[in-house]
Amino acid sequence: MLGASALSLGIIEGAAEAANSLLKIISGWIADRSRGKRWLVLFGYAVSSTARPFIAIATTWMQVFSVRVLDRVGKGVRGAPRDAMLAGWATPGTRGKIYGFHQGMDNLGAVVGPVLATVFLIFYPGQYRTLFALTIVPGAIAVALIFFLPDDAARVAPGTAPSTPHLASAPGTGHAAPSTTPSERLPRRFHLFMAVLALFMLGNSTDAFLLLRLTDAAGGVRFIPLMWAALHVVKTTVSLAGGSWSDRIGRRAVIATGWMVYAVVYAGFAFSRTLPALLAWFLVYGFYYGFAEGTEKALVADFAPASRRGTAFGVYNAVSGLGALTASVVFGAIWKIYGAPAAFGVGSALALAATALLFVVVPRHAAEARVA
């Protein structure tokens, strides 16, 4: 609607994810030194829920840029503390299942939203501003639900993992765990995994480019929200199974499977032209998310000592976001200069290279690398 180019789209999405990722390092560091993490999670969701509806009144792509960055600031504040809370409620043998379930629920929400958006656009064609304004409703509900969460997972002794889920009592009960200053170092294997992840993320541009490719093939955006919802149906289903699978056969195999799916899908987008073919690749793309997203987080929890998980998740998300910044800008530039097939081809090649290195730096089974 605002006439932004592929390069502009890359700058918007890349900068938004960079702000998100840098803040996750800070919020993760704070979470490791705080009595509770819930306040960080609450603040993050509140910022995003407040900012997002302002897209409804944007008149230039630079205004969208500002709103998207503020939206991602909220995500950056809440992400690492939330992931650390989940790790505190998991046992070593259920981390994959828990993070897979979390991703599945996140994706389920992303199914309902686009379906409702599609129904709205069918009855009110072109009313995109009203549609964005209505996002204030689910945002407010999400913020309200956070008040029902326990304040934090109880701290566990450094170098150990909880055998059962632990919940800290609500403020005022006298049972909150004391704050500690983390002194353990993140292990070498964690840093090696971050290096491999950085290589993969260099080819992992924003999904907005996939939607742009589908929009070109479909000749319009009317049914793009429905396609986005279909993708998340796949992501939800596979995430629930992928995390549990990693608890049984090891994180490395599941992550590698997801990354290889990514490489194949990007190659498919490079060589396919018709809408049916591109839509098929787009749905297969959901398997990448289902296998990789939750399992990567479970592996981070495996590597990191309990007292440093907030920081570890902050670093993980920073690597992901900064990679997205670089990938999105470079992808947009390659698309503009050499065309979409070249851009998708580069993403596919980087994913294959990262998958090969993953087998070098990550042990076969998560238990072999478990630190906490």
Descriptive account of the structure:
The protein is mainly α and 372 residues long. The chain has a single domain (6-155, 184-369), classed as Growth Hormone, Chain: A (Up-down Bundle). It has helices at 6-32, 38-51, 61-88, 95-123, 128-133, 136-146, 188-201, 208-218, 224-249, 251-271, 275-303, 309-338, 340-361, 366-369. Helix 4 (95-123) packs antiparallel against helix 9. The protein is globular.
Count of folded domains: 1
CATH topology: Growth Hormone, Chain: A
- Structure summary, number of beta strands: 0
Report the mean per-residue pLDDT as an integer: 81
Total DSSP helices: 14
Strand percent estimate: under 5%
**CATH first level:** Mainly Alpha
Major sheet, described briefly?
none
Relative helix content: over 70%
**CATH superfamily (homologous) name:** MFS general substrate transporter like domains
| CA gyration radius, whole angstroms | 20 Å
Based on Cα principal axes, name the global outline.
globular
From the N-terminal CA to the C-terminal CA, the straight-line distance is: 49 Å
Quaternary class: single chain
Unreliable stretches? 153-180, 366-372
- The assigned CATH architecture is Up-down Bundle
- Quickly give the structural class: mainly alpha
H-E order? HHHHHHHHHHHHHH
